[in-house]
Amino acid sequence: MNTAASLAADFVALGVRPDTIVMVHSSLSRVGWTEGGPITVIQALREVLGPGGTLVMPAESPQLGDPAGTDIFDPLTTPTTMGAIPEAFRSYPGTRRSSHPLVSVCANGARAEEITAQHALEICEGRGTPFEKLYELDAWTLLLGVGFNRCTSLHYAESLVPNRRTMISGFPIVENGVRVWVEKLSMGTDNGTHFPIVGQHFADLGQVRSGKIGNADALLFSTRSLVDFAEEYFLTSLESGAGNCC
Q1: Residue 226: pLDDT above 90?
Q2: Which of 45, 121, 150, 183 could cross-link with 170 by S-S, CB 3.0 to 4.6 Å?
Q3: How far is Cα 114 from Cα 117, in angstroms, rounded to an integer?
Q4: Is the Cβ–Cβ distance between 123 and 187 less than 8 Å?
Q5: CB 109 within 8 Å of CB 53
Q6: Which residues does residue 184 pair with via DSSP β-bridges, in sequence order?
């Protein structure tokens, strides 16, 4: 059984360090039976990062993209579909959440307000978003029991190239006190085609630390290094005419 102490030791062994910023994509089931559940994983990470560090997680809510729905995004109450750990993290004391209705980001710690303050409605994983801020702040990415297909910073990398794959996303917002449906350009959702290839090539360069967190395979790497590598990959791999996907 995993405990806060055993998980903290695993995070340290993997290379998580105090005073850093870490974006975590996770699967609690892969970590295995944990005393206290997802809160224990969060507490272990916060302990290792310390007061000067910042823990970040995706808090996407794609259910709000249903035109038949009636809910409006509320950063305090809208649930995320990203798994047990992010769902517990969004309401964890001190956590802040960015404002995008579909792909919000939660952060807790020294740089949380800075990371979540701005979130563009269009190309919502590109410039003017927490994903750009994570790049600028030289954050780390931790894949905890999941693969590169779950790594949102690869969407940010692709957003920077001319032939990026895009789609239209719709969601409700409130304008002048009235609920309105808006449609915005966003990055495509086909993560399975290029993302695992990019991740494998990146790992082959020796840029990724690997280990075990509980029972989960875990990968830790520089977000900026991955984005720089992936931007070059997308520049050469996305040919003209491949810019749209659905």
Answers
A1: yes
A2: 183
A3: 5
A4: yes
A5: yes
A6: 169
